[in-house]
Design goal:
- There is one protein chain.
- The protein has 238 residues and is of the alpha/beta class.
- Helices cover 32% and strands 18% of the residues.
- It folds into 2 domains: 134 residues, Rossmann fold; 63 residues, no CATH class.
- The strands form 2 sheets. The chain has a 6-stranded parallel sheet with strand order 3-2-1-7-8-9, with helices on both faces.
- Helix 6 links the parallel strand 2 and strand 3.
- Helix 5 runs parallel beside helix 9 and helix 7 runs parallel beside helix 8.
- The two termini are 15 Å apart.
- Bound molecules: 2'-O-acetyl adenosine-5-diphosphoribose.
- The site of 2'-O-acetyl adenosine-5-diphosphoribose (OAD) has 23 residues, from helix 1.
- 2'-O-acetyl adenosine-5-diphosphoribose binds next to helix 1.
Length: 238
């Protein structure tokens, strides 16, 4: 049974399932996101080197999709939870869409990067680039140096997720660790629940299907996040 007050420390880990009801395909659904592409062809540093055009066009498609989707009630309910908990709340998302921040979440870590952002591999600057001229098939040049080809600011396979020290520190300290819409296939994200559990946190899950790490959850709510999460959060903060 979850009981929270303003001093309860909560970390929420979200995955593709929370954005499914906004119209963004999940990764491991039968009709999955990869649109006829093997992961190795579009989501590795090697692919970017070998076939930058394919990788660029794939991510430009996904960046364009951001202009057509909106946050759903599940994203919004996490804003309500953050408003209640303030700095005791941390949202860690594996999603590269911008629906959490557009819903209003602030204490937010994008551990797998962000579609909105392009990065220069020469000067290492990042740029939030979502104007129409940045969303075409043409490469975008770095505004800061001579590099003619910025890359997506996405953590590809074989690359290290962002801000892991901050994430681990918060998970080790939290009272409640919650997973929402994630299948538990991809590490290190899928192992955060082990860290939370070992540190004594209550582990709560909301997911359409049982995730790989189902057995680590103390409380599990099976169904759509957009339907279940707003009610759960309302119960917690009332
Ligand atoms: P997955 O596609 O692996 O899992 C999505 C989960 O969401 C599944 O368990 C679904 O059952 C569940 N789901 C679907 N619709 C839902 C809904 N409406 N409400 C609640 N749950 C729902 O996505 P992730 O676990 O996020 O990494 O995948 C993790 C990482 O794998 C991604 O960040 C990506 C990918 O490779 C990188 O790109 C580095």
């Amino acid at each position: 049974m979850v009981e929270i007050n303003h001093a309860t420390k909560v970390v929420v880990l979200t995955g593709a399932g929370i954005s499914a009801e906004s119209g963004i395909k999940t990764f491991r659904a039968a009709d999955g996101l990869w649109e006829n592409h093997a992961i190795e062809d579009v989501a590795t540093p090697h692919a970017w080197k070998k076939n930058p055009e394919l990788v660029w066009n794939f991510y430009q498609g996904r960046r364009n999709q951001l202009t057509e989707v909106e946050p759903n009630p599940a994203h919004k309910s996490l804003v309500t939870l953050e408003e209640f908990l303030g700095d005791n709340f941390l949202l860690v998302t594996q999603n590269v869409d911008d629906l959490h921040s557009r819903a209003g979440s602030n204490n937010l870590i994008h551990m797998h990067g962000e579609l909105r952002i392009l990065r220069c591999e020469q000067c290492h600057e990042t740029f939030d680039m979502m104007q129409q001229e940045h969303l075409t098939a043409d490469y975008v040049a770095c505004p800061n140096c001579a590099n003619q080809r910025l890359r997506p600011h996405i953590v590809w396979f074989h690359e290290m997720p962002f801000q892991l020290p901050e994430i681990y520190a918060a998970v080790e300290e939290c009272d409640i660790f919650m997973t929402v819409g994630t299948s538990g296939h991809v590490y290190p994200a899928a192992g955060l629940i082990d860290v939370a559990k070992q540190a004594g946190a209550l582990c709560v899950g909301v997911n359409l299907d049982e995730p790989m790490n189902y057995g680590m959850h103390d409380e599990f709510h099976q169904g759509k996040a957009g339907e279940l999460l707003p009610n759960l959060v309302d119960e917690w903060v009332s």
